[in-house]
Amino acid sequence: MKVKRVASNEPEPLKTASQELGQNKIVLSESQLPTNWYNIVAELPFDVPRPLHPTEDRAVEIDDFDWLWPIECLRIELQEGLYRTDPWIEIPESILDVYRRYRPSPLVRARSLEKYLGTTAEIYYKREDLNPAGSHKFNTALVQAYYAAREQHSQIHTMVTDTGAGQWGAALAMACETLGLKCCVFMIRKSFDEKPYRRYLMRMAGADVYSSPSELTETGRNILRDDPENSGSLGIGMSEAIEYVKEDRGRRLALGCMSYYAVLHQSIIGLETKLQLEQIDRSPDLMLGCVGGGSNFTGFIAPFVPEKIGGSPIEFRAIEPDSIPTLSEGEYRYDWADFSELTPRILMYTLGHRFVPPPVHSGGLRYHGKTPVLSALVKHKVVDTRTFEQRRVFDAGRVFLRTEGVLAAPESAHAVLGAIDAARDASSSKRNPVIVMCLSGHGYLDLKGFSDVLDLDSSN
Ligand SMILES: *Cc1c(COP(=O)(O)O)cnc(C)c1O
User: Fold this and answer.
1) 387: helix, coil or strand?
2) Is the pLDDT of residue 16 over 80?
3) How far is the CA of 460 from the centre of ligand 1 (A)?
């Protein structure tokens, strides 16, 4: 698709008022905030295999990793007890209190975008860009910090993590601040250098932030010795974070997107979306989202998956950058989540744990693997995939800003482009599908990336 340029002297798209067309923004009241997460693995007709030990030929047990993860995260990841059997997991009251600051989030009909495209489709976007750290990641960061803070006998004082573009680090920094924990972030070097604003945000929220690969860990030192210019990757950052946790019993690892527990927590997105669509008497024909580790997209679609498996024609589409085609071209096999083979091995689509993604601007999508439940859904053909080239994605981000007045994160712009392509297909075949996308975050701290790709410094 060649995105038609909206001339800058052509204000028309933003002017399209919606009064004559009905409701624009579908909002829920605070009392409609879901009070349970949806645990999709309990209802799938197939098993999502449990992780294997990093080096031994057996399943992982809680004791293997209780030094690394908060116990509750491990219980979710290993599908222990109610996490294997119960589709509804109660959200703790103190989490709900914080969720209420920014949830339920609106679902918005993209009328101006529809009009600009001249499409016969209805397009909706779920806004996860309006929360404290600017992306969906705060939804799970908060809970992980809560589990750690609650584990009193372990005296956990610090959460450690790796971050790409910095959204995850910023979310965790704010979550730790909320729960009274310290936060330490290994930020992949390319973003550390090119996205200083998220680094400032994390530090302002009280976190320690290191450029990864770093001199703080053996993994980092080895990589820098062989390749002083190494631009880092989430796999390397995770290895560094794990090593760092190992050195102090009061530290634990937090993971933004690769884990199943992140998916469970993100199901709040899909649960709200379901209520909102019901409120306007719509059911989705196509749901789409971008995938890095897979948490926003999988949480978004999870409550709709049983319908699909039960025979409803709804389509789910996961979008990746063409330079990191994990679901589209990766292998489905056991692989480590990190570079140094310290994590459990997970059955997933992977480009290989030593894959160093090209330095594209969508830092949050630069990951070699995908969360096991999403991988299983793709393997069983419940979810289909697309890959997009960066320039088209950024053009879609520009169209979205000029029509809807919302600056999507580069990651989220993948979902926007997916919706635009689908809307164009619908028009050419004269159908009226309901297309719903997850807008995972805002792009205000990514304007440098937009500028590089769209050449905003030189053109007027
Ligand atoms: C991290 C991030 C992603 C990718 O992570 P998922 O686990 O796939 O959701 C997508 N969008 C934004 C804005 C992010 O920050």
Assistant:
1) strand
2) no
3) 31
